[in-house]
Design brief:
The structure is a homodimer. By secondary structure, chain A is of the alpha/beta class. Chain A has a six-stranded mixed beta sheet, sandwiched between helices. The relative contact order of chain A is 0.14. The model of chain A has no long low-confidence stretch (mean pLDDT 92).
């Protein structure tokens, strides 16, 4: 997906938010915005937004000297969701359609971003999403197609998105493994710290490695920019019979690909809503 | 009032909105954003936001070749509010406290921006504001102090803000003239087109010149930057016994001044809310 002009104000907003997380003073924050502004004239609109997201993170790291300012936030998000893991597991177990419940929860998890402060917040968000998912018209929710595609897939590549959310991914993966005990599932994390995106250490601390193979995409953008991915990842990507792509960043970088990709995310931004024709707030399970 | 880092994403948003109004293509819109981004590194945070607003408008004009892209929008706003002028007049006439009603309406008018599409929208907004004004705690609403100050003032300088809104200003000025027949009131417009701000032609087409003196501030920013104002305006400004300042732009440029200024506006932006301690959405009648 290309970058729209409406993304540009948002790049500055994201740069500012990221920089503030590092705790630097206002003058240093301004230096970050100055550097971002220098990139704007030459940034091509046919590049995907996460390409700029990667540049912004690089600037934030370079100027603030903090390599992984979201580390504590990521650890806390993981812990908060791990704490309610038994409850989420029970939610799925007691559902008429366990896979559907796990998918809905996995999308709920995409909403849990680093703004979430405590388990009460998470509880509220999950309730809201589950209630919304049940009420929603689900126009962009191709559950039956997803289920059919799963049954015909010998291998699934699961592209992770954020910390915290990874625990919801784990629940969905466990459900997939129950249904498809012979299918090989691989979970993919980012290669280096970028915002609050999942890294190998998150996968390990949340126990993903106990249930599936976990690999890095080789890419350090908040999305999956194929040009920046490792050979190992690209090999799996090319051969996977089904790809599950979590979150907006992966959608933005892979939406134009000709692969069997099901995108799972919540439409959190008006640019994506306009681009796709989905509604802001929609939960999406869709093969593009 | 200084510029905050949170204003920077908003500068790009405003530049994009303004440029789109001119109807130019995306490549030209991008050129505007490129030029704005070049200003960021050297823009001093101790300057007020309307200083950047002025620069952005200058860039939009320069690149699109449109000197007054908001002209039709301004004319339409004026017409829409002139159409309901008799109804507004009756609203004031039938109020227990006519001045209070006129002040509340004048602030309501500050909300009517160029996004308003028809008289139904305006009706709705006014109803909402009047209902809100009656309910609100009015913590930032020093009406009694304003009324007392008026009684002791031989001259009032009234700084206009937007087209459309100017008709509400007219209603308040008529009320002021009723109460204070001997007080000299001067209405101030911007010197040159800038966004949808009031110009001399708006004052003339809305009949302000029939009831008060109308002058230009000499300034072409979306606010009142004293360094850019004319001698004539500064003379009046220095000697006015009371100044009524409409809108956020005038507030941002005059908030730190040591003059008897009552600011009338609705808090439409979180930066101003944080800076002042007012709440987002508050209607403000306040001497700083």
């Amino acid at each position: 997906m290309r970058t729209y002009l409406d993304c540009i104000p948002c790049f500055f907003r994201q740069a500012l938010d990221m920089t503030r997380i590092t705790g630097v003073d206002e003058a240093t924050q301004k230096r970050v915005l100055n550097e971002v502004s220098k990139l704007i004239p030459d940034f091509p609109l046919d590049a995907s937004p996460p390409k700029m997201g990667r540049e912004i993170y690089r600037i934030v790291k370079g100027i603030t000297g903090k390599n992984d300012p979201f580390k504590k936030i990521k650890q806390k998000s993981n812990k908060l969701v791990l704490d309610i893991y038994p409850k989420l597991k029970e939610e799925i177990r007691s559902s008429d359609d366990k896979l559907l419940a796990a998918v809905e929860l996995a999308i709920a998890g995409n909403v849990i971003d680093y703004g979430v402060k405590n388990s009460l917040d998470i509880d509220r968000e999950i309730e809201k999403i589950l209630a919304g998912a049940k009420k929603s018209s689900k126009k962009s929710f191709d559950y039956q197609e997803f289920r059919n595609a799963l049954n015909n897939s010998g291998s699934v590549l699961y592209l992770g998105d954020n910390a915290g959310e990874i625990v919801f991914d784990k629940l969905l993966i466990e459900e997939l493994s129950n249904i498809l005990p012979d299918t090989k599932i691989t979970y993919v994390v980012r290669d280096k710290p970028v915002i609050n995106d999942v890294l190998m250490e998150d996968a390990l601390s949340c126990g993903l490695d106990k249930i599936v193979d976990v690999i890095s995409s080789g890419c350090d953008a908040p999305g999956t920019i194929l040009d920046l991915c490792s050979k190992e990842f690209l090999e799996l990507y090319k051969n996977a019979e089904l790809i599950i792509s979590k979150g907006q960043g992966n959608f933005e970088t892979l939406a134009d690909e000709e692969r069997p990709i099901f995108f799972l995310f919540k439409v959190k931004c008006p640019v994506i809503a306009n681009h796709t024709g989905f509604n802001l707030g929609d939960i999406v399970l869709k093969k593009i």
